[in-house]
Amino acid sequence: MIHAEKVLDHVLDHLFDSVIMASTDGLITSFNRAATLTFGYTRAEALGQNVTLLMPEPHCTHHDQHIRHFPDWGGIIPSSQNRELVGKRKNGEVFPITLVLTSVEQSPRDWIFIAIVRDLTQVDAALQNLRFTAYSDPLTGLPNRLLLMDRLSQAIRSLNRESPGIALLFVDLDHFKPINDNFGHHVGDLVLRETATRLQSCVRESDTIARLGGDEFIVLLMGVENPLSALGIGEKIRETLNDPFILESVSPLTLSASIGMTFCQTHAIDAENLIRQADFAMYRAKAQGRNTVVSYTTAQDLR
């Protein structure tokens, strides 16, 4: 019997997942090596403690209720399959876990509970990194076209007659190519990052700034009362981008931007066409001599 227990302890201590056993009254009777690493308690600290030591509220309260009613359920654990919950480390940190819970009946009304716990912290971090990579521009950290399309489509669907509208500003830097040609792509990248920072300073947190690629940016403005309000923000952006760019290793650079604006108060248009309208207005701004803001009108499409 003693030999079997040693073999079991040896096996448990070489598992990747935390394995925690508890008595019918919820006291920890076994705590493998992975559990000590995951939760931060030594075996001596954990053994004999209530298993709620490893749970944040409100799970502690729910667990106590389950323990009290367990005999009434006939020793059957509801939903014993993989469940995503949260655990609590010794330092108070709450972290994501998966839990598989089972029980072994030793005698009537006396069970051993066995919990298999996997720490999802690194998995969650990896998923967040993947999401950031999938939806962000690697140079500026701004949302990319994919995330913009998602947010813009949601914004269009939310429009109704009583709500304010939305507006798109299509921002294209004037004469950006010569900067790359004359000073190199390193300086060009610095200009694009600084442009992103300046755009962010001109809008609210509820708005979205995205980089489409090259020197093209889109600003999605939420809760816009009328086109004039959007044009005012467009002018603010234009003036901000007119300020000299003070960059390392080169003399101050003076840039400008051509900006096209389109305003929308209906969900009768899709995201692609709304971007096309703003793009069309931006090219009208370039045709008018650049460094200006032009509002889209349907009449422009007919020319």
UniProtKB/TrEMBL annotation:
Pfam families, per database record: GGDEF, PAS_9
Domain GGDEF: 164-298
Domain PAS, first and last residues per copy: 4-57
Signal peptide coordinates: none
InterPro entries xref list: DGC-Regulatory_Protein, GGDEF_dom, Nucleotide_cyclase, PAS, PAS-like_dom_sf, Rev_trsase/Diguanyl_cyclase
Descriptive protein name: Sensory box/GGDEF domain/EAL domain protein
